[in-house]
Design brief:
The chain is an alpha/beta fold. The chain has one domain: NADP-dependent oxidoreductase domain (TIM Barrel), CATH 3.20.20. It has 10 helices and 11 strands. It is globular and about 55 Å long.
Length: about 300
C-alpha cells in the first residue's frame, strides 16, 4: 500500500515545495476573464491556502488578465519566505476573452515585466513558457528555440530565477534542455489524459518536476463510473481520488488544483492524506488505459 505524506516535498528549481499546491486560475471571473464575483472571498481563499501550509502557487498575468496576480499581491504581500509563485507567459487575452498567442520577443519581455509589476516582485521565481502552437490545450511540434532564448536572456538579466515549459512535446523538452536548465514541465495530464506517461517517467529520472494542468479535467470535469465506484468505497469524493492518484503516480508530480471556494480548497487539500491500495490503483489505471488513446 502506498502512503501519501501530506508534508512531502519535491524540488522546484532550487526550492522544496509541498507536492499539493494551488492554482489561481479560478480566482478570475467566468472563463478566466474579468474580475471575480466576490473579491473578498478570493482574498480569503488565498490566505487560507498559505495558512494551510501550501507554499506553491501557480498563476499568470493573462488570467483576467492581470486579475489573479493583483489579488495574490493584495492577499499575500509581503510574501512568506518559503512561498514559490510560478507564473507563465506566451499568451494574452483578447477583448472578447479569446486566448491569443503572444510569443514575440517584445511580448515575452513585456509579459515578464507585467508579472513582476502586478505581483509586486523584483524577480520571478519560476516562469513557464506556455506554447500555443496547436490546439489551445494540446501540444504541437515546432522549435521553441526563438522563444526560449528570449526567456533565457531575461534569466541572465536577473529577472527570472528558473524556467519551465508548458504545453510541450517530449522533443520540445529535449530541445529546451539543450538551451537552458528546465525546472518543470506543465502539461495536460490526469487520470484519463495519459499521453505524457513516458515524459513523466523521463523527468522523474532526471529530477525535474512535472505539474499537470487540468488535474481534475479542467473545464470538463472528469467523469467515470469506475472513479465514482472507487470514491464510494473509500467514502471520499471522486475528485479527491483523482488527486490522490496523481500523487501516487510519480514522486516528481506537483499538483495545482484551483478553486475559489474555501470548502472546495479544504476538500482538495485533504486528498494528500488519502491512501490508495495497490488494488485500487490498479483499477484506477484501467480508466486511463481505456481512454488515453482517444484523447491524444
Amino acid at each position: 500500500m502506498a502512503q501519501i505524506d501530506k508534508s512531502g516535498t519535491y524540488r522546484l528549481g532550487d526550492r522544496a515545495v509541498k507536492r499539493l499546491g494551488y492554482g489561481a486560475m479560478q480566482l478570475a471571473g467566468p472563463g478566466v476573464f474579468g474580475p471575480p464575483k466576490d473579491r473578498r472571498q478570493a482574498v480569503a481563499v488565498l490566505r487560507e491556502v498559505v495558512a494551510s501550509g501550501v507554499n506553491h502557487i501557480d498563476t499568470s498575468d493573462f488570467y483576467g488578465p492581470h486579475v489573479t496576480n493583483e489579488i495574490i499581491r493584495e492577499a499575500l504581500a509581503p510574501y512568506p519566505d518559503d512561498l514559490v509563485i510560478v507564473t507563465k507567459i506566451g499568451a494574452r487575452r483578447g477583448e472578447d476573452a479569446s486566448w491569443i498567442r503572444a510569443a514575440s520577443p517584445h511580448e515575452l519581455t513585456q509579459a515578464v515585466h507585467d508579472n513582476l509589476r502586478n505581483l509586486g516582485l523584483d524577480v520571478l521565481e519560476v516562469v513557464n513558457l506556455r506554447l500555443m502552437l496547436g490546439e489551445a490545450h494540446e501540444p504541437a511540434e515546432g522549435s521553441i528555440a526563438p522563444m526560449l532564448t528570449v526567456l533565457a536572456e531575461l534569466q541572465r538579466q536577473g529577472l527570472v530565477r528558473h524556467i519551465g515549459l508548458s504545453n510541450v512535446t517530449a522533443s520540445q523538452v529535449a530541445e529546451g534542455r539543450s538551451i537552458c536548465d528546465i525546472a518543470c514541465v506543465q502539461n495536460h495530464y490526469n487520470l484519463v489524459q495519459r499521453a505524457d506517461d513516458g515524459l513523466v517517467k523521463t523527468l522523474a529520472r532526471d529530477g525535474i518536476a512535472y505539474v499537470p494542468f487540468f488535474p481534475l479535467g479542467g473545464f470538463t470535469p472528469l467523469q467515470s463510473s469506475t472513479l465514482s465506484e472507487m470514491a464510494a468505497r473509500l467514502d471520499v469524493t471522486p475528485m479527491q481520488v483523482a488527486l490522490a492518484w496523481l500523487l501516487h503516480r510519480s514522486p516528481n508530480i506537483l499538483l495545482i488544483p484551483g478553486t475559489s471556494s474555501p470548502a472546495h480548497l479544504r476538500e482538495n487539500l485533504a486528498a494528500a492524506d488519502l491512501v490508495l491500495s495497490q488494488e485500487v490503483l490498479a483499477v484506477l489505471d484501467t480508466i486511463g488505459h481505456a481512454g488515453s488513446s482517444s484523447l491524444r
